[in-house]
């Protein structure tokens, strides 16, 4: 038994850092640091609309999701070759290992690359090779989730799924990202039905900027197993009750929510209420190069801003991240035992 009440608040930052955890909501293209963007631009002869690393970083003042996405897609334009995708993912895994991430499920956006003439096989080959290297070098298990861009058509998503099928063994699921408002989940009903028939796991961004109705349709029409973000569920008591009863995981990204002005400050974030309502909420970094922090920074800043969060919540968040992952039961049990050990000696 872990004596959570005996753990003082000043021990929390060290525990948050040291505890093993899974990251389930990371857009790998959102891990591209400005320095790597410029290095890859030079390596590939790509012209950027920013004069320097500093000028690019200075543009990271977002007012909403779309203002971020415009810069995020510009940054991704330097990715051309398998090696670029490998280098990008390895830089993320190195940071994740330092944060005691033991398992990561990486979103990738094939359409961002195929529309520039980069083959989907090139993207998947680079990310797959990096995932294998992450296991060998850092002991991190990694899985890939292919995301459809929701501002494009469902037919484009279906064509992307078809193009990815020769690489089916290299990704475990599909997701839905990009501009949420005006692009409800039900727009992608057929491609998610097809993905389900193929035995793929299903997730979708919903309730970040979009209303609770988008979370309902992600569950009922797309039949997703996890909701990415989902924070706007707190506006709908019946929805919270359903998510809690069915233990539908929500991959919450606190620093992202503040940077994209979903909440004015971390102190205003509903995460404590979500946890206390019994939701299977997790903490994630979303696009760490753009939003001011990797996973541990998200944990530490969130706990600092919200004094009602305790050691019990910290343990719950890490254990939720394992429960919510698409990893096997055996490794989940091992990670949970390692988590308990950190808290027992805390
Ligand atoms: N929301 C939607 N689409 C995205 C995001 C996000 O936070 N990051 C990268 N693509
Ligand atoms: Zn996201």
What descriptors fit this protein?
8 strands; alpha/beta; 8-stranded parallel beta sheet; binds zinc ion; binds hypoxanthine; 346 residues; TIM Barrel; globular
Describe what this molecule looks like in 3D.
It contains 17 helices and eight strands. The chain has helices at 12-18, 34-44, 53-58, 65-76, 82-98, 110-114, 120-138, 154-164, 189-197, 212-220, 237-245, 254-259, 271-276, 288-291, 295-305, 311-324, 329-344; strands at 21-27, 101-108, 141-149, 173-177, 201-206, 226-229, 249-252, 280-283. Strand 5 (201-206), helix 10 and strand 6 form a beta-alpha-beta unit. Helix 5 packs parallel to helix 7, helix 8 (154-164) runs parallel beside helix 9 and helix 16 (311-324) runs antiparallel to helix 17 (329-344). The radius of gyration is 19 Å and the shape is globular. Zinc ion is lined by residues 25, 27, 177, 205, 228, 286.
Average per-residue pLDDT, rounded, comes to 98
* Secondary structural class: alpha/beta
User: What is the name of the CATH superfamily?
Assistant: Metal-dependent hydrolases
The main β sheet shows up as: 8 strands, parallel
Backbone shape: globular
Query: Architecture, according to CATH?
Result: Alpha-Beta Barrel
What fraction of residues sit in β-strands? 5-15%
**Domain module tally:** 1
Instruction: Report how far apart the termini are.
Output: 12 Å
Major beta sheet, strand line-up: 1-2-3-4-5-6-7-8
Helix amount: 40-55%
Number of helices: 17
CATH fold name, please? Answer: TIM Barrel
Q: In total, how many beta strands?
A: 8
CATH class: Alpha Beta
Backbone CA Rg:
19 Å
Low-confidence stretches: none
Hetero groups bound? Answer: hypoxanthine, zinc ion
């Amino acid at each position: 038994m872990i004596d959570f009440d005996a753990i003082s608040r000043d021990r929390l930052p060290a525990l948050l850092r040291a505890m093993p955890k899974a990251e389930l909501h990371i857009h790998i293209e959102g891990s591209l640091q400005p320095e790597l963007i410029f290095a890859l631009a030079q390596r590939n002869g790509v012209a950027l609309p920013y004069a320097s690393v500093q000028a690019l970083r200075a543009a990271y003042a977002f007012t909403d999701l779309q203002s971020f996405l415009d810069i995020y897609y510009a940054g991704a334009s330097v990715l051309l070759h398998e090696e670029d995708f490998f280098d990008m993912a390895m830089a993320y895994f190195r940071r994740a290992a330092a944060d005691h991430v033991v398992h990561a499920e990486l979103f990738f956006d094939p359409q961002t690359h195929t529309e520039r003439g980069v083959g989907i096989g090139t993207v998947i080959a680079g990310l797959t090779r990096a995932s294998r290297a992450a296991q060998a070098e850092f002991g991190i298990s990694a899985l890939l989730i292919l995301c459809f861009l929701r501002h494009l058509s469902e037919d484009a998503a279906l064509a992307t799924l078809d193009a990815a099928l020769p690489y089916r063994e290299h990704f475990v699921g599909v997701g839905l990202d990009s501009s949420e408002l005006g692009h409800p989940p039900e727009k992608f009903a057929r491609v998610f039905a097809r993905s389900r028939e193929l035995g793929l796991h299903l997730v979708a961004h919903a309730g970040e900027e979009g209303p609770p109705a988008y979370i309902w349709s992600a569950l009922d029409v797309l039949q997703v197993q996890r909701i990415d973000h989902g924070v706007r569920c707190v506006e709908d008591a019946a929805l919270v009750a359903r998510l809690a009863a069915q233990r539908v995981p929500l991959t919450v990204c606190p620093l992202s929510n503040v940077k994209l002005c979903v909440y004015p400050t971390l102190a205003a974030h509903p995460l404590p209420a979500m946890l206390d309502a019994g939701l299977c909420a997790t903490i994630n970094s979303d696009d760490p190069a753009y939003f001011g922090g990797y996973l541990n920074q998200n944990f530490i800043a969130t706990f600092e801003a919200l004094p009602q969060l305790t050691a019990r919540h910290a343990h719950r968040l890490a254990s939720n991240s394992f429960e919510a992952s698409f990893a096997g039961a055996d490794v989940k049990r091992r990670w949970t035992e390692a988590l308990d050990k950190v808290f027992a000696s805390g």
